[in-house]
Write a structure and sequence with these properties.
Blueprint (H helix, E strand, L loop, with lengths): L1 H11 L25 E5 L3 E5 L4 E4 L5 E10 L2 E6 L5 E5 L3 E5 L5 E6 L15 E3 L3 H4 L1 E10 L2 E14 L2 E12 L11 E6 L5 E5 L17 E5 L21 E4 L3 E7 L5 E6 L5 E5 L36 E3 L5 E6 L12 E5 L4 E7 L4 E7 L5 E6 L5 E5 L4 E8 L2
Parallel strand pairs: 8-12
Antiparallel strand pairs: 1-2, 3-4, 4-27, 5-6, 6-7, 7-8, 9-10, 10-11, 11-12, 13-14, 14-15, 15-16, 17-18, 18-19, 19-20, 21-22, 22-23, 23-24, 25-26, 26-27
The protein binds calcium ion.
Pfam families: GSDH
InterPro entries: 6-blade_b-propeller_TolB-like (IPR011042), Glc/Sorbosone_DH (IPR012938), Quinoprot_gluc/sorb_DH_b-prop (IPR011041)
Keywords: Signal
Length: 405
Amino acid sequence: MTRFTLISLVSAVSVFAIAGCAKPAAEKTVPPEADVSETASVEGDVTRELPANAFEIKGSDGVVLIAEPLGQFEEPWAMTFLPDGNLLVNEKEGRIKLVTADGDVLGQIAGVPESEVAGQGGFADLALHPDFENNKKVYISYIEAEGDLYGSVVESGTLNLTSSGGELTDIERIWTQSPKIDTGRHFSQRLLFDKDGYLFITSGDRGGQTPAQDMNGNLGKLIRLNDDGSLPDDNPFAGQGGIKEQFWSIGHRNPLGIAMDADGQIWENEMGPRGGDELNRIVKGENYGWPVVSDGRNYSMLDIPDHDTRDDFKTPAISWVPSISPGSLIIYTGDVFADWKGNALMGGLSGQAIVRVSLDGEKGTEEARYSWDERVREIEQGPDGAIYVLEDGFEGRLLRITPKG
Ligand SMILES: [Ca+2]
């Protein structure tokens, strides 16, 4: 509702100082009058066209952002920028779409494995191999079933792109979440390559809580593998036998965001139960405490001991009560938001906001929230330094977000 009120406001005052951007957004997301773009001159000769459906987001820190709706997707879950500036958008039912940075859908990727869709799970994340430009390898996560039991899997494939989509071939199994469970909860399944080329996989507790401390299953863990799925010999439990050789850290609940900072440090965010969402600095071999400790409480309202009652578990860099439900994470490195360099930006689902957190190495401090009353599923930094988000749900929009001025 407020979206359309803000539109006219933005059109009237479209002052903006970034050159060379923005053609009008895809037609399907544009109100009837929207092919009329406003062009405003800003301090002399810099001009920028803003689509008429752009709107303002006012942060809790007073900073005003401009959001440009670029397109709309059906339950989008993840996006990944390609070296050529286009992006891939994953939809939960099992589609990967090739999209320009202005939101035009060029086509779909063929050969994508069929994903089960169960509760929170479906076709999920995609990560480019660090040498993607040469080997065209990508890694995907999705859900498979065995009877009425579900679990996440990660596979690699070769992505042959064309101007109108492409095809995924040579698919190989990299990892299987185990054991499979008869619920559709807490698959997590986000993917990240670190600076040394190791593949990190977030594996949620599948709603069972205690699996996060069980060393005989890979639920509730961060997983670290070589790019072919084999076990690195410097993993914390390497050489001890069994599935624990995959683990990098344990005691996680529903880690839906993972990112690396400029120093190569890995950060992860996860949903707590009723409150207790966490942003964690990930350290090799550490136990993050779920479900023994949490700053939240169970849905039954039974309290759980807080993190500060136990120094044998790693304390979060910052936790939230009430919940923001972080569903994605980046560490910002661009120049468009110069003051935000090194900050964590988290997409909040129930929080309906981008949550900005400054990091001092060990601890995090929430600096601001930027909300437009939509659930944020995925956040990425574009090659242009702008922030791109995917809203959650069946009409989730792709938005490009830049500072107002
Ligand atoms: Ca992504």
